[in-house]
């Protein structure tokens, strides 16, 4: 076990931060991301009960993409050097507009000079939007921030509209290997929330849970209500063990730089965090390597995932 503290980092570099979104009539969020039979709770996992494959979402690819021949999908993957492994893989999509994102999202991305998805996003976004678990093997510059945060915020807005969560029960958790990465991811979540609120949507409240953040401010924010928590492993586990907030309604989990988390000795802590989840969830896991230890952690966290290798030159 390394002697580093829980919140120390091995890697502070982040991928490019790409913001965000409007959701109203154009979006796929027409029905709640609910299917009690699609996953099982952690206690059921512990008893070795069989789990099903994916969550249910209201998103589907456009008709012209759904009806493409499989050979065309493979040609797109070959073009962008995307390698996939899994069953019933959603088709890759090369343009944001074909992902059924609202115009405000596309306009915002275009204003930042982001005109098309990265290779990881071309395949990863359709997977995540479809409710399928994802194991992403990609470098730091692959566009993981947009891929992990945008679907989380859109789905949480649907939850907010239906008032299905208690104020202090976040919808989404992003676990990072370092404080630096957590701060970068948190800034992306904030940017999405502020943009959406500026276009008439409910203000979603993100929280940053790392060492160095004023604890009284954090506790005050939690009491007021939180929707997303971006954190390091040790600080999250500490907050959960002290019952500062609960994951009873959490349905979206991201584990970023899993290889780094393993290297600094906190894979078991990630596994321990699973006991705090009560509902079916969708999980995304990213790693720069697919070592045996990474694959072992993936088997613990993910349900029938699609593995995507992309972004490597």
Comma- or semicolon-separated keywords:
313 residues; alpha/beta; eight-stranded mixed beta sheet; 12 helices; 8 strands
Polypeptide structure, described:
By secondary structure, the chain is an alpha/beta fold. It has helices at residues 42-46, 63-66, 70-79, 103-111, 119-129, 144-162, 179-198, 215-224, 233-241, 258-263, 267-273, 292-301; strands spanning 83-85, 134-137, 172-176, 206-209, 228-232, 252-255, 282-287, 306-309. α5 runs parallel beside α6 (144-162), α6 (144-162) packs across α7 (179-198) and α9 (233-241) runs parallel beside α11 (267-273). α8 links the parallel β4 (206-209) and β5 (228-232). The protein is built from 12 helices and 8 strands. It is 38% helix and 11% strand. It has one domain (42-309): P-loop containing nucleotide triphosphate hydrolases (Rossmann fold, 3-Layer(aba) Sandwich). The model is unreliable at 1-51 (pLDDT under 50).
Strands of the biggest beta sheet: in what spatial order?
A: 1-8-2-7-6-3-5-4
Give the name of the CATH superfamily: P-loop containing nucleotide triphosphate hydrolases
Give the C-level CATH assignment.
Alpha Beta
How many H/I helices? Answer: 12
Domain module count = 1
What's the overall average pLDDT, rounded? 83
Poorly predicted regions? 1-51
Overall strand count: 8
What share of residues is helical?
25-40%
For the largest beta-sheet, the strand count, sense and barrel status come to:
8 strands, mixed
What's the order of the H and E elements? HHHEHHEHEHEHEHEHHEHE
Using the 3D structure, state the CATH architecture: 3-Layer(aba) Sandwich
Radius of gyration: 18 Å
Strand content range? 5-15%
At the fold tier of CATH, the topology name is: Rossmann fold
């Amino acid at each position: 076990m390394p002697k580093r503290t829980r919140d120390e980092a091995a890697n502070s570099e982040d991928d490019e931060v790409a913001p965000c979104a409007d959701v109203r009539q154009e979006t796929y969020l027409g029905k709640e991301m609910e299917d009690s039979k699609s996953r099982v709770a952690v206690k059921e996992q512990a008893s070795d009960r069989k789990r099903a494959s994916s969550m249910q979402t209201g998103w589907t690819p456009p008709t012209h993409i759904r009806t493409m021949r499989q050979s065309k999908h493979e040609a797109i993957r070959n073009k962008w050097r995307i390698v996939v492994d899994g069953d019933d893989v959603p088709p890759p999509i090369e343009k944001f507009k074909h992902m059924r994102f609202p115009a405000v999202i596309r306009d915002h991305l275009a204003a930042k000079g982001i005109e098309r998805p990265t290779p990881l996003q071309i395949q990863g976004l359709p997977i995540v939007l479809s409710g399928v678990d994802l194991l992403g093997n990609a470098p730091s510059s692959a566009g993981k921030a947009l891929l992990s945060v945008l679907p989380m915020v859109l789905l949480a807005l649907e939850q907010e509209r239906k008032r299905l969560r208690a104020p202090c029960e976040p919808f989404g958790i992003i676990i990072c290997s370092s404080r630096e990465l957590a701060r970068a991811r948190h800034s992306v979540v904030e940017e999405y929330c502020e943009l959406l609120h500026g276009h008439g949507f409910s203000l979603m409240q993100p929280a940053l849970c790392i060492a160095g953040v004023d604890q009284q401010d954090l506790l005050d924010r939690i009491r007021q209500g939180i929707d997303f928590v971006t954190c390091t492993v040790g600080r999250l586990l500490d907050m959960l063990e002290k019952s500062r907030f609960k994951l009873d309604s959490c349905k979206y989990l991201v584990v970023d730089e899993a290889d780094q988390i393993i290297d600094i000795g906190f894979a078991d802590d990630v596994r321990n965090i699973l006991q705090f989840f009560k509902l079916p969830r969708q999980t995304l896991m990213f790693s720069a390597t697919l070592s045996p230890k990474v694959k072992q952690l993936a088997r613990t966290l993910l349900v029938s995932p699609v593995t995507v290798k992309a972004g490597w030159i």
